Give the backbone structure.
Amino acid sequence: MKVPGLVDLQVEGYRGAEFPSPDLTKEDFVRLCRWIVESGTTAFLPTLHTVPEDLYKRNLSIIVSMLDTEELGSRIPGVHIEGPFISPEDGARGAHNAEWVRKPDVEYLSRMIEWADGKIKLLTIAAELEGAEELTRYAVEKGITVSLGHQMADEDDIARLVSAGAKALTHLGNGVPQNLGRHRNPIWAGLANDDLSAMMITDGHHLPPAIVKTFIRTKGIGRCIVISDGSPLVGMPAGRYRASGNDAVLDASGRLYNPHTGYLVGSSSTMLQCMNYLASLKLLSVEQLVKVGFYNPLKLIGVAPDSIPQGPEIVFDEQQNLFTICK
């Protein structure tokens, strides 16, 4: 069965290169994007995690200068900014550098929008931070979808941000400390809010099968979205690396983690691999898989499916329960 494609709302890099790199060039950007498309991702949002202000300015300018090209423009609807308005707490902050985390700041976001030429499509923030409501309203007015993540928010915090216009949860179940209160924590609070879609990293390392099943059953197919959270170590061999400002170990299983903290530092999987892991759990029909991997992400950021051009042809083999790229 031929499928329309796969859309990834969160990918930072591939084969040792990354969108937030201080050494990124236009040529690097094009090469990175081609690799991602060749890996089976039809359209995607280049993602910048928390970095210094001058690096946002530099790299956003480079990225958006290439989005008007015929090759990339229709495959890249915009940019995902994951930070810097996130929790400064260890665990909730994840692999983001504490030095560059900031409180919600409308003027700062306004500058980012200018550097990005209005092409920020998705913004991840923490719901509990002072000023998060004001920032969310401003972002929504500018056409940005706001997602909640890297946070320690409770139900009231999340409800306030939903009222302000937030629409999703960034990598639900991740970007939190290893140890949380049993009942009052940001995972349960986000899962219980019926107005928020849940983005999930289904690489086989970020979420165990029982949690994936619970998220899908609770949110429903219409509010679940698969993302890769692909790091610059996607496509690299097992070993020790320095990636996204972190010491990182990529083991043979594909698990990517900081050896000092034990926290994951993004995924080493492509969107295609994430979809195949989800397919292997046998929770969804092929039609449902296509919804969470293609239609739902586009709906979240307000992009029409027919605006996305055909990439490498992807088919789903129902006998093997597997997505493959036709060569």
About this structure: The radius of gyration is 18 Å.
